[in-house]
Write a structure and sequence with these properties.
heterodimer; A: mainly beta; seven-stranded mixed sheet; four-stranded antiparallel sheet; 11 strands; globular; B: mainly beta; six-stranded mixed sheet
């Protein structure tokens, strides 16, 4: 079973950047896609983007294009999500999750990190 | 990107059956996944695909799909099923993206 452990909570100023890490154990890190999903307080889940470590080619949701960078370090089995130009509405719980498919066609998330709270406040 | 629509809130009497629905164009092409999220916890996958339940999920959780609508049914709802439920599917834009529904708050009375 894959386990994902994320870095701790962050408090950031508007306009700054945050980088959240997600360390994986179990499974073969290089080959399974890691996605980032965020959840604003009291709100729903929002897909930000993802990466397959072995391919090193991230995909980003259009909303976050130009502001987010997702990377992966195979040597440490760790994925990262950096968000720049932080605004107050970026205050949210940020999750990493393993994207999984039973048939290579449909996408689900079968393992989740514990979440990292990012608070943007002046 | 495509969108998935869920009812914001649903209630069910203890022991009764409840259906939570999810609508969207992407569901004509892809099967939905369903997640249960309790306060302060990460989401948990409870049903996916045509007819699949992850290991450890009670068999009172089942799913179905027709046209642009996917449904999660809880047969004999328990107090511990009170939670937020989210659906997801692959995005029809074809960029390996994923879309989520807005979530349904389930209250067990």
């Amino acid at each position: 079973q894959v386990q994902l452990v994320q870095s701790g909570a962050e408090v950031k100023k508007p306009g700054s950047s945050v980088k959240v890490s997600c360390k994986a154990s179990g499974g073969t890190f290089s080959t399974y896609p890691i996605s980032w999903v965020r959840q604003a307080p009291g709100q729903g889940l929002e897909f930000m983007g993802g990466i397959i470590p072995i391919s090193d080619t991230p995909k980003y949701a259009q909303k976050f294009q130009g502001r987010v960078t997702i990377t992966a370090d195979e040597s440490t089995s760790t994925a990262y999500m950096e968000l720049r130009g932080l605004r107050s509405d970026d205050t949210a719980l940020y999750y990493c999750a393993r994207r999984w498919s039973a048939n290579g066609y449909d996408y689900y998330f079968d393992s989740w990190g514990q979440g990292t709270l990012v608070t943007v406040s002046s | 990107s495509s969108e998935l629509t869920q009812d914001p809130a649903v209630s069910v009497a203890l022991g009764q059956t409840v259906r939570i629905t999810c609508q969207g164009d992407s569901l004509r092409s892809y099967y939905a996944g369903w997640y249960q999220q309790k306060p302060g916890q990460a989401p948990v996958l409870v049903f996916y695909g045509r007819d699949n339940r992850p290991s450890g999920i009670p068999d009172r959780f089942s799913g179905s799909s027709s046209g642009n609508t996917a449904s999660l049914t809880i047969t004999g709802a328990q107090a511990e099923d009170e939670a937020d439920y989210y659906c997801n599917s692959r995005d029809i834009t074809g960029n390996h993206h994923v879309v989520f529904g807005g979530g349904t708050k389930l209250t067990v009375l």
